Give the backbone structure.
Amino acid sequence: MTVRNIPVTILGRLSRSALTVPMMFSFESVDQNGKALCLGETVILPEEINPCISVLRHYDILVIALHNHWLFNNLVM
């Protein structure tokens, strides 16, 4: 896995918020079969979304939601 330092700016201001960290995941509510409720946040580029979901599905991880936190975003690298 590669972790990148993507400089996140919101409305032109650099953000160091925990909401814009490269990734954060929680694993909770493990049942008797060893299956867990897993939640995650990640900073991901638009062109990476479908490949990322494909990998998750390949490993039988059920993706039930995907959403964007920021409206009117623009990537400048």
Strands lie at 9-10, 13-14, 23-28, 37-42.
